[in-house]
Amino acid sequence: MISRPRKSIWDSTSWHWRNHLMTQQEFVSAIEAGLASGQGASFSDIELSPDERLRSKKKYSTQIVPFSLNVKNKTWRGIHFKNCSVTGLTFTGAVLEDCTFENCQLAIQNWESRYSNCKFISCDMRSFSFGADQASNANAFQDVVFEKCSMQASGMDFAVFENASFLNCKLDRAEFRQVTILHSKFVGKLDDVVFGRDYTDKPSRLQAVDFSKATINFSIFPNTHVSDVTAPENPKIHAIKPL
Are strands 105-111 and 7-10 parallel, antiparallel or unpaired? Predict the structure, then answer.
């Protein structure tokens, strides 16, 4: 593995770390320093992993890795990640506001956490935990943009999306099970996507969801309550009403 130089750069407007293999303690300390400054913090070309063997692998975010850094009941505001690999991180009861993740590999576990006014751009999120095991642990995503993200086969159980935008994301085989999606929109291809779950008492709910710029193929909506949904403009799409 090639060792990268460690650099910590501070200026009068923000904290900025780059080209850095960070330990968990360094990562937490850097976040806390940026928040304490009142200016937020930015990270570029940072690799955070609890397992050093994984740091040199570009696709390790799709592997099972230990979640050993647990951030509980904290608020992260104004944090910007660019070209970063972040694994082994768990948010429990956390709030992330005005944060941006750009071209990042993310293996992050979430429990009872809320993302507000955040952006995920060109991120590998296949090992990002959107859903939860039960409603009491549900995560919320409000005013969040997902753009050109890899989200294949993601499980979204119990998650709440409000004013969310899914823009040209890879959502093949994603399952929005027992979710609530309000005033949101989907743009791009939706292949083999499941909205709802037919073997549960809790239905999914889609209200004021805009699919007008989406192309939907082989997708189903079992046990889903739908209202004010805008159908795709593609003339080849056919809606089948239940008997």
Answer: unpaired
Kindly report the pTM of this predicted structure.
0.86
Pairing of strands 41-48, 69-72: unpaired
| Cβ pair 235, 212 in contact under 8 A | no
- The Cα 183–Cα 129 span in angstroms is 22
pLDDT tens for 41-82 read 899 988 876 555 544 444 444 444 455 788 999 999 999 999
Burial of 141 (0-12, 13-18, 19+ CB in 10 A): buried
CA distance 54 to 47: 10
pLDDT band at 118 (very low <50, low <70, confident <90, very high): very high
* 133 φ/ψ angles, rounded to the nearest 5 degrees: -80, -20
Question: Furthest-apart CA pair in the chain: how many Å?
Answer: 65
Return the residue matching tokens 């940072």. 46
Distance of alpha carbon 227 from alpha carbon 223, whole angstroms:
13
Q: How many helices (H) and strands (E) does the chain have?
A: 1, 23
User: Pseudo-torsion of CA 87, 89, 91, 92, nearest 10°?
Assistant: 130
Between β-strands 7-10 and 69-72, what pairing exists: parallel, antiparallel or unpaired?
unpaired
Q: Residue 238: which pLDDT band, with cuts at 50, 70 and 90?
A: low
Q: Distance between CA 190 and CA 8 in Å, rounded?
A: 42
Q: What is the Cα Rg of the chain in Å? A: 19
